[in-house]
## 1
Amino acid sequence: MAETQGFTGTVLYEDGDHKYIWLGTEQKYSKGVIQTMQYLIIDQGRGVLLDPGGVHLFSRVVAAVSRYISIDKIDHIFFSHQDPDVSSGIALWLGVTKAKVHISSLWTRFLPHFGIVDPARVSGIEDKGGSLKLPSGTELRFLPAHFMHSPGQFNLWDPRSKILFTGDIGAAVFGEGEEVLFVEDFDRHIPLIQGFHTRYIASNSVARKWCDSVSRLDPEMIAPQHGAIYKGASVKRFLDWLSALRCGVDIADQIFGA
Amino acid sequence: MAETQGFTGTVLYEDGDHKYIWLGTEQKYSKGVIQTMQYLIIDQGRGVLLDPGGVHLFSRVVAAVSRYISIDKIDHIFFSHQDPDVSSGIALWLGVTKAKVHISSLWTRFLPHFGIVDPARVSGIEDKGGSLKLPSGTELRFLPAHFMHSPGQFNLWDPRSKILFTGDIGAAVFGEGEEVLFVEDFDRHIPLIQGFHTRYIASNSVARKWCDSVSRLDPEMIAPQHGAIYKGASVKRFLDWLSALRCGVDIADQIFGA
């Protein structure tokens, strides 16, 4: 993708009250570091930030957000799970905003290990999920995505834009200069997602369960934290592919080398 | 346990050349933060540090280590997996030591998100495991423990002390003032480990696989990163209990609330 596009981000959905923004990715490909994508929902001028990432990315993400909204208007930060590339910047984000953090209740007691974290600002999401009402009345839903890979992972469903933010699910690993924002050709995308999903997702049974619940939502886009966004025909192609994937404990003998 | 014991640590194994030390835990119980335990192996005067933990604990663990060995004699740091309570202090530890870091190759590309990390100092462990030769000739083994919970988790087997460091496996959650260093009565310990293992471990099939491989080692002690150390009769009791546990994707309907 063009460097300027990578840097400035793209509006994925917009109406009078509500915007869904892809905040871009690292400007320069960096070998040995997994690339991440951040998203921002703006609803009646107030912000919800999704997986803002680690210490490593903080200044870039602050700059990207501030092109769309002032940082002090971020009311909520959603963490899909506990990994360093998702949530290790928490202490910095709590410092520059008054936002409340939403993460699986499995991880609330682990967050203070990232640094100074006020537990009163962390809201644990129960296993079955929950919701978050925005100023316009639109209600975001925390959708269970446990064991894909994290034992406590949530997706964020926005029923207004029909965009499902999926954290690690759908993640692709690009080679240098190969990055695209949208999956244009699903067959060509498979080699970029095969390795990750086969090795990190816990089992086909849980993948199928997740695919069934996502199919019922009929999303316009599936937006992961790494790789590229699925839209149009590639949404269904991805769900069909993942439903049929043998992975994780299904192939434990192969992984453990027993 | 007595506060002074908690603070100063305990030598679990010792011979002329080789020591295995429990470095203690947080001196004060802190509600809302998961407690962690660190271990140090000293072999012919050189150190291997196990799961030294996050930013939050750095100064305590540095102080605890320095009672036994000078910090610059730590040659290796082992991270069982990528969670914040295990590895978020990596940039600080790389700053005060010349140590090499060992972690699953699944996580090497995620570590830079914790801060400044020189990839040349991180050694990715392949899925099937590996080993690390110490100055005395004793060879530590990286034993696969994937999906329990992390998709890329390793245990560290020390064949000389016969202590198996298990990261999250065996973790117990104590109430205030209930901490013990060793599991004295396994039946009374079950309620403290049941919740964690049922919810975080990916499946009974993988738990059984792990228990079988650990039984073959016949460890003297199983030393987890949280909770208490299993020794003597409690080792076998724990393995039998875990082998029979339905967990994770086995009970997905219950967890997802479907």
Note: The domain at 2-256 of chain A is CATH 3.60.15.10 (Metallo-beta-lactamase; Chain A).
## 2
Amino acid sequence: MKVNGKNIRPIWLCHDSKLVKIIDQRRLPHEFTIKELQTVNDVIMAIEKMCVRGAPLIGVTAAYGLYLAILNAPVKTVGDDYLIKTCNKIKATRPTAVNLAWAVDKVLAEVLKAKTSTEKIDVARKAAGEIAEEEAERCRKIGEHGLCLIEEIKRNQKEGTVNLLTHCNAGWLACIEYGTATAPIYAAFDKGIDIHVWVDETRPLNQGARLTAWELGKHGIKHTVITDNAGGHLMQHGMVDIVIVGTDRTTSTGDVANKIGTYLKALAAKDNNIPFYVALPSSTFDWKLKNGIKEIPIEERDSDEVRYIQGFDKGKTRNILIPPESSSAANYAFDVTPARLITGFITERGICKATEDDIKRLFPEKDDGRQMTEDGRRMTEDR
Amino acid sequence: MKVNGKNIRPIWLCHDSKLVKIIDQRRLPHEFTIKELQTVNDVIMAIEKMCVRGAPLIGVTAAYGLYLAILNAPVKTVGDDYLIKTCNKIKATRPTAVNLAWAVDKVLAEVLKAKTSTEKIDVARKAAGEIAEEEAERCRKIGEHGLCLIEEIKRNQKEGTVNLLTHCNAGWLACIEYGTATAPIYAAFDKGIDIHVWVDETRPLNQGARLTAWELGKHGIKHTVITDNAGGHLMQHGMVDIVIVGTDRTTSTGDVANKIGTYLKALAAKDNNIPFYVALPSSTFDWKLKNGIKEIPIEERDSDEVRYIQGFDKGKTRNILIPPESSSAANYAFDVTPARLITGFITERGICKATEDDIKRLFPEKDDGRQMTEDGRRMTEDR
């Protein structure tokens, strides 16, 4: 998407494919820093230190990590041992990121089929690039389908702005291009529809205020940052036409685990009769799960993410302490929004209701209750 | 309430009643500063700069302001003109604070009856002191009635901790003693009931994380700071037994305007069948109002309160910027929780349902639809 008028992705190959560049997301929005990754160790560091975050982007970065490992292998003939050891090292960076392991294994499988070192390098680069393009394409399709919803609102209201509300960052920074929840927003904007986005700041890590606001602003989309407390009031007063959020894990019955606070917005949307949509690539479905609240484990993260807030002061990114030093804090990272509060899902195959039957209509091949999507992938990381 | 083992109020008279001392609440929780107010101008500054906040405390501070003005009057014989001019100056500090004007006028009415300068000084000091004691007593009674609810939960669960959740700061820092929402909490703690409080940080100004957490911690009450996003998840998982919040303005039909985000917590409580109580002195009823969402105007405050957050770093209280410099923000200070989501009101007269009939049962003298409480007072400030 656009940054200062130029199209950019959160990761790309350059210098005759000799190195990978990424946007260092830790510094956003106050510092726009491009980081060069020359070796697999640079990639490991970038994932560990969360210069990159978001399931699809972590996967693509990891895939390029394996490519760089092969490109810069210490010996001319790369053995299977070296490859497998390297894969394990990459996978260990964020062990809960299923997407990461999936991407690395996908590149590895291709590389193991290749014979010469040159072939292995070519195959790895190509496989990693394909993963990136597939992620982008899935998001493009989500945008295409979601656009219809925004166009319908526009038709019904005849004049004025379409007001959307989103929570956290399910944007291109996490997804190569378009994003998931933001894909319909970019599609509507690019079609010239007058839109405005209410951006939940999304405590504790403020991915909304820091990343979504930055993305939208750079692309030229009107938006307003609000506290996570404000959405209910806006909905009560007719200031929100549609809510679109992402998801980290989705049950076959339509329950959604997403960034903490999503559930509260879904309750408010229901109470005010406002459509509440979840945008997702089908890879977030966990087909074996039936009851999100009971079955999806909710990660409890470091309480200092609640106690300290990162911001900018006097030319420097700083962390400041909010509550008394002696007060403890709890940091549940996600919550579960029950299907009954969700108007529908926007997927790469189209839109469906958040019901087991309608999900199966769109994904009939999952009807046998198999656990994984065709490519065996799930997303669990959306930080 | 207790701070470092000593009983303290947010305001008190000292040095032979020659000066007023206050806790400078702007610096909490990281700096505990006592500020001396020697003149009416000191008082005006303290209210304007929000060293004191919360309707009852602002009222008491203003009342002491008039007292200091008379005590330090430039001429020996204080004329009515001087008194009225001074009152207007004090009232202008926060024009929407109805409580402030009410308290100043109450002291003025007493002073105008007095004859000699010495008498005027005595009468003013006494009137201001009475207002303080009345505020404290109202809160004490709220605590007494609310305690019954906590005792009932304790009886039903037999063992373990009673978990409460509160939003913002409706504590003693705003109310001389006990607070409103916190009054039942202090009462239960002092009775030895095992309680734990989930403290919503309450963005944008973080009065929960900064003030409520500080109050509870200083009194020795177990508490955990959470983001405003977290309450719904906690309620889904049985980790909250009761929610108690304050109110800034309450309709005769039971709708409640309170700090932004209260509505979202009420929705979650309802969805999870958890009792949701509002603690209030009856002075917050605006008897002429019937529909909170339509009739209560919601103050929109400076957007920089959303964009910047105050915290502590390297021995200094600082403000840091969160979203991109170019992103705008909206800052609605309150929202309205409809009566249908409220289990009941805890008032100084007892507990009632959030219905017009049950409110009238407790306050039968209001049945004629008169606008004001007996003393003509409402609260609109609870910053």
Note: Chain A has 13 helices and 19 strands.
